[in-house]
Amino acid sequence: MADQSHQKATFYQYRLLKKITLPRWMWTTYLLLPCAAVASQMVILSWDSFIFFLLSGMLIFWIQFVIGRSVLHLTGSLSSRKWRFSLQAPWIGYMPEQHVSSFRFIKVQWHTGWMGCVLIALMAFWSPLSFTISAYFWHLWLVGPRYYAWYRLTRQYKDGMLKFGPDDVSYYSQ
Questions:
Q1: pLDDT digits (tens, 9 = 90+) for 16-41
Q2: For residues 113 and 138, is the Cβ–Cβ distance under 8 A?
Q3: pLDDT digit string (tens) for 120-170?
């Protein structure tokens, strides 16, 4: 019986090495952070912070999409078709919808993180303070769960595959 299943093994069969489940309290806190951030900006800075908060959010979504898509394109990856814009919390933004190599995911997230911070710093010279603070908030809010998953998987093998579920990250080997 074991020989039959081994003979019928395909490339798409993976072995689960680690599964990281995000606790419910972390989700709730994560989703309430934008409300707290915009409220505090409106109290501390000015009432028009709400408008800057919305504008910077849309801009950061677009910037992260462009950076992620560009990194996939420049590395010659054919897996860019496997990446989609997701609105599923906590994986909001440009995320893989299927299994993706951990190396590729880390590469995209690394470049998205530092390039996003540099672009926001460059925009800070011409933008109002409220817009700059909001842009940094949205950038960190979007990459936060991805960096948390990356941090939790730092001791795993580098040639594995990642699969993002609704409330977990699974790490597989081939």
A1: 888 888 888 888 898 899 999 999 99
A2: no
A3: 999 999 999 999 999 999 999 999 988 988 888 877 767 788 888 888 888
> Does residue 107 contact residue 28 with C-beta atoms inside 8 Å?
no
pTM for this structure? 0.85
Return d(Cα 26, Cα 145) in angstroms, integer. 10
- Joined together, the tokens standing for residue 102 give 């951990």
> Distance between CA 71 and CA 76 in Å, rounded?
9
φ/ψ of 8, rounded to 5, equals -90, 10
The distance from CA 82 to its chain's CA centroid, rounded to whole angstroms, is 15
Joined together, the tokens standing for residue 166 give: 């609704």
Residue that has been written with the tokens 């800070």 in this structure: 124
